């Protein structure tokens, strides 16, 4: 069967199409298509509380392109989820309705808790008896999940994101609230391991060297990498490090969000599994159809 996941974030919008096969008792997931388009909806919303007419038109064109690909691949099921920028926009619901009526693509505007839940679905196999702090940093929000002995004991979404921080739209009380939440729920737990999801922590991980069989990134390495990035101009980050334009400016504020969260948890290392919302959506679609009938 073929599934499609659409992740409508504050800094970029992604489409992934995956083919699932079943052979000798094992399910295999093969990525057929992956597209990331740098449409920064959050820049509009965090300043004016609405998506501009220009970005509205671009967004609708992009959804048409995604719908064409979904149809061409003859996808069996799909799920499209919009996060922080769309849910905070005063005209977000109108845009979603326009896409549904004109294109036939259904978009779900999800809250922070649902976003965290979907991302968690992709992390199940990574959690064991230890204490974990899962940090997912998006353009507009950061979702935190705390696990102990395989049980999620706390979860919360904060209006702290890479684009929001870049535009200096995060108030200090919100930072303090996040740190207090972590400290309270991680109290009396030792050897806390962080799990980082999101494009920026993956890029920071990549900048520290080949991924190979590495799973973890030391806190000191994150600090060192951010310091190096700050020593470069925007143009140098784009041309010397080959970063996308929409990554080169947000990677530093994003990295500092991971740092502050890890500091609050007294966590010295972070696991970077290259998973995210789209992977959680895929898991939801897979589970849904497995309940109906074997693939």
TrEMBL record:
Signal sequence interval, chain numbering: none
UniProt cross-references to CDD domains, sorted A to Z: ASKHA_NBD_PPX_GppA
GO molecular function per UniProt: pyrophosphatase activity
Domain spans labelled Ppx/GppA phosphatase N-terminal: 35-283
SUPFAM superfamilies per UniProt: Actin-like ATPase domain
A family per Pfam: Ppx-GppA
Name of the featured protein: Exopolyphosphatase / guanosine-5'-triphosphate,3'-diphosphate pyrophosphatase
Annotated transmembrane regions: none
